[in-house]
Design brief:
By secondary structure, the chain is α+β, with helices and mostly antiparallel strands. It has 3 helices and 4 strands. A hairpin with a 4-residue loop joins strand 3 and strand 4. The chain starts with 9 loop residues before the first strand and ends with a helix.
C-alpha cells in the first residue's frame, strides 16, 4: 500500500485602518516547511504600497532566506494595474520565493476587498 502524505496550508490575513488614508494588512503563510509573515501598508488615495516588511520564521532552504531581502521591493507598487507582474518582478520569478509571491498576491486581493468595506464603514458614519 502506498503511503499518502498530507499537506496543510494555512493562509491568514488581518486588516486594520485608523483612518481612510492608510490600510495595513498582516499576512501569514504556514505549511509543513514554511512560516512566513508580511505586513503591507497601502496609501488608499494613491493605491500604492508605502511600507513592506516581514519575517521568514521557518524555511526549508537557504535560498528561501535570501528572498526575505526582497520584501522591501514591494514599496512603491501601485495596485491599479499589472499588480501580479509588479509583485512577481519585486519578489518572485526565477530568484524569489513562490510562497512570498503567493502570500503577497493574496494580501493584495484581500486589501482591495477591505478597501471597499472601509469606505462603507466611514460612509455609513458620515465621515469622508
Amino acid at each position: 500500500m502506498r503511503k499518502e502524505e498530507t499537506l496543510c496550508i494555512f493562509l491568514t490575513e488581518l486588516f486594520r485602518s485608523a483612518d481612510k488614508k492608510l490600510l495595513t494588512v498582516d499576512g501569514f503563510f504556514l505549511d509543513s516547511h514554511h512560516e512566513l509573515c508580511i505586513t503591507l501598508g497601502v496609501d488608499l488615495e494613491s493605491n500604492t504600497i508605502v511600507s513592506a516588511n516581514g519575517e521568514f520564521l521557518r524555511v526549508p532552504h537557504t535560498d528561501c532566506e535570501q528572498s526575505h531581502n526582497l520584501i522591501n521591493n514591494l514599496v512603491g507598487i501601485n495596485l491599479d494595474r499589472n499588480v501580479r507582474k509588479q509583485i512577481q518582478r519585486a519578489v518572485g520569478l526565477n530568484y524569489g520565493c513562490t510562497h512570498l509571491t503567493d502570500l503577497t498576491l493574496e494580501c493584495v486581493k484581500g486589501l482591495l476587498q477591505a478597501k471597499f468595506s472601509i469606505d462603507e464603514y466611514y460612509n455609513a458614519r458620515g465621515r469622508n
